[in-house]
């Protein structure tokens, strides 16, 4: 690994960090301010896609663009020191702060950046200490470019939008408030103020400012600006020519002379205010009074570190391995970071416009169902409201939990979107035993799209995006009804090979060019699984009947008017009829017997499972997972070339449809064709060799990058999960172990985290914001540590081997219904084989096994008087 952990709290350090080219996230607990910062102090600060305080920064901007840097100049008689330039640097980073230390000649310099957990401003502290016997005299000047508008304007109307800028100079800094938001869809008044305030030592303000780039650079450029190299005097008052220019927070502090061991400290406070307050400057200055001295800032810094550690320790792991424990803390943080940042606001994610995608939302919530089930319930109910009556869904959830069709206004449907809500709901119900959530009535999403985005509703003019009946009443259906609509519409939505139509893509967004004839066999496996698995909960519902939308009965054909499932045209006709009927829903509901509903779902699940197991298995030793836009198999031995995709095998295994013999052959094929022998990880696909316009853009990427053959962490973690689930423990450990090895390898060149993927050189790319972190934690808890829940009861069935133990014990500590549970796994043998429970004690009382499993009943946990339960599990 390129870093060293310096404590047991996740804090790490890196020498010469600039050479690795990574970045670091900073934010508050609610994600009101989102920052990225790299060791050369580049990155950006924003609230969302429309409100960037500093210029938007892509991954390439980090190393090339001086306008994307927070900077600070120290001008001595001999030289100009630009603090963003690396010189004997060392990085220290923790939860959530970034600190660079430098040694330049006789000066020791520290640069600390953090966002207080409860105050949405970024604080930058520059500390300069003279270590020589001779006094050092210098002129200090800050440099923070202010942008103050939408990311769209970085290219679109960059100059014109700067003409809207209005600057206000304050004793402590600068305020930028553009007059309007420039958008050709419709200009409107701007209500956001952007600011940067600064002081020296104990609240000593700057002596002047360089409020625009023009004034700062003069006739020079950013390499040698006049403000620094020519000792240009700063302005102390607002001048009319400052308006309509690119703004800058460049503060000149008084000339300083430091004797031996003396220190000078400078503080910059950066943020924005969109409250619409009549006097935003007054409001900002009130907040500034909370942090306008070194001791106040130190207080916020200490509180911020404590907050994040307390948050992360809600679920605490101890594998008796310092490096793994600390690395795991950062992985635990990643789902939270994606919740706050969405998928768009770190430098690698320069393609996005904010918000989380549908798939991201549900998979990130998997961990939440374990740590905070009450929050998970609210999230689940709110998010199910994104389902359309045709089984498709809104694709983006904004930071304020609003649902939108698509952030790019493109009408699209992903084949896999229907499976994820159920998997998260399943986890929630098993954790809490809250079966009643299935009968909760919630709304549906309604926009201008009809028939799974195949038609436009020209009469749509609503602003609330709620489904209404023909009579104009808001329609609500149970959570169960939402699940059924998602799965039943997908069951009938098949192509010529009688498997799920791919439509605009599935989990692999790169398979996006087969909308007409493409099919996703891979996710057909999961729909078959979910249809059957749902029956377990239905059998435990305390009711004999449920009420469902009248139109939905068309898809419950085994109850009424059955069709031939072997005939894809019959399925298509039935779906078309349903989609036509739901263009304007009646609002009527029909009573359905639970036993009849179960019969219908089991028939569908059984048919689809058998079909996939027999029709899509390839003699070469793995499953075909896709059909292309010419309706041809995408996988197998084609034109003397092996074409294999990991996702096709993962979901065949995870669904439980692949037989044990098929899984053994899939494993052998995966080792042979997909495992990179140098990196140890498993690639997303073999090299298809050329552009594949009949399947997707993925094959236009260089092989080994992103969706075309990279070691894609998310799918690798799910591969491990599926193998654990089916009892292939040794193989599963090999797969999950490859992620940790690659992530901590020097080749990865990343801080502690799981990246979205590793390229062919083993470098980790797309940092922090990835669903693989949530799946890693889910895998660790449910499979490796074997802590599963079934209707509220804990089922302990660990899948640990002797090699999982650095020492004798592994522990997990978390809260359950106001009780603290600590489970300790104690190894009695060093065997590298899978270990089994030999005995189990709860607060010293031995528990007997039930059918080779140890079940801790929920009612006993809830009704015990003990606030702490110490569970010791002996393995041999």
Detailed description of the structure:
This protein has 876 residues and is α+β, with helices and mostly antiparallel strands. The protein is 28% helix and 24% strand. The chain is built from 20 helices and 49 strands. The strands form 14 sheets. A ten-stranded antiparallel β-sheet has the order 1-2-9-10-11-12-22-18-15-14. Strands 7, 8, 13, 19, 20 and 21 form a six-stranded antiparallel β-sheet that branches. A hairpin with a 2-residue loop joins strand 42 and strand 43 (793-796). Helix 8 runs antiparallel to helix 9 (373-384), helix 8 runs parallel beside helix 10 and helix 17 (713-725) runs parallel beside helix 19. It starts with a strand and ends with a strand.
Task: Tag the structure with descriptive keywords.
876 residues; alpha+beta; Beta-galactosidase, Chain A, domain 5; Maltose phosphorylase, domain 3; ten-stranded antiparallel beta sheet; six-stranded antiparallel beta sheet; 20 helices; 49 strands; 28% helix
Short synopsis of the structure:
By secondary structure, the protein is of the alpha+beta class. Helix 12 (521-540) packs parallel to helix 15 and helix 15 (646-654) packs parallel to helix 17.
Helix content: 25-40%
Query: Could you give the order of strands across the largest sheet?
Result: 1-2-9-10-11-12-22-18-15-14
Multimeric organization: single chain
| Total beta strands | 49
Residue-averaged pLDDT: 94
Put simply, the count of helices is: 20
